[in-house]
Amino acid sequence: MKRILATTVTLAAAGLSVFALAQGLPKLAVKKTYKVGFAQTESNNPWRLAQTKSMQDEAKKLGWQLVYTDAAGSAAKQVSDVDSMIAQRVDAIFLAPREEKPLAAAVKKARAAGIPVILLDRNVDQSLAKPGVDYVTFIGSDFVKEGQRAAEWLTKKMNGKATIIELQGTTGSSPANDRKAGFANYIKKYPGMKIVASQTGDFARDKGRQVMETLLQAHPDVTAVYAHNDEMALGAIAALEAAGKKPGKDVILVSIDGEKDALQAIIDGKLGATVECNPRFGPKAFETLQRYARGEKIPAKIINPDRFFDASNAKASLSTSY
């Protein structure tokens, strides 16, 4: 009995709800307006800017207060951002996790404080935090399928034979892990499709350019590039051109996201194709939270429908891209 009381006092001192810990997911009262947090991972590319705008626009439309933070590419800062939202007693938190492991602990801390969390576009380590227990749901794309679709297109384009450089996303992030796995699992059926170098470009255009410049020196015979996002693909295009190679002819590129600059690169013949990863999360995110407050059963994953862009539809889609 003394041990239970001592534990209760310790949790209370930490500002955590014993009831929430015992009951799993916190309840959310039905209200006209909410104060919600949105912990963004970074704002250094068009995809993130489009996602943030979508969240801000939907909050404004509903008349909700949005507490917005930008982790500037730091998992440690994002953990601190979540701590700040907990201290501000927001009603719920929308989180785009920078990395899987550090943010799993932040998710559990929010749940223990009685604040429901919905993950957007990136997941957390499933061995450390689970949907329906530690957080409500994950809303986003099927990253493994994105990698598979990119691999399928490239394999057909290259007739099953290519010397590939892979530009990976942020190390430890779910899109980087899954897009790598999806691509690798597909091409293992084709022995002529060989990845000769794979290195992170951190989902950034300039970093992608720098990494591509370095890898090109070691692998001048490269015939294809698989980039985990458009920004790195665009950086790779710049590096190829600086090296005197013609992207789209000497080297075929495929990437993921579907941003406007990538569609223009397809139109210009420099990028072969890109798998869409829709950034406009606002409507679905806020609708899901409202459904949760009403007590509806929310699935563990809500997968966004994504399109595929190549020379056949890039021009027609340019005006509606981000």
From TrEMBL:
Subcellular location: Cell envelope
Pfam family, one: Peripla_BP_4
SUPFAM superfamilies found in the cross-reference section: Periplasmic binding protein-like I
Keyword Signal: yes
GO molecular function per UniProt: carbohydrate binding
Statement: the UniProt record of this protein carries the keyword Signal: yes
GO cellular component, one term: cell envelope
Signal peptide annotation: 1-22
Gene3D superfamilies on file: 3.40.50.2300
Record's protein name: Periplasmic-binding protein/LacI transcriptional regulator
Lineage: Bacteria, Thermotogati, Deinococcota, Deinococci, Deinococcales
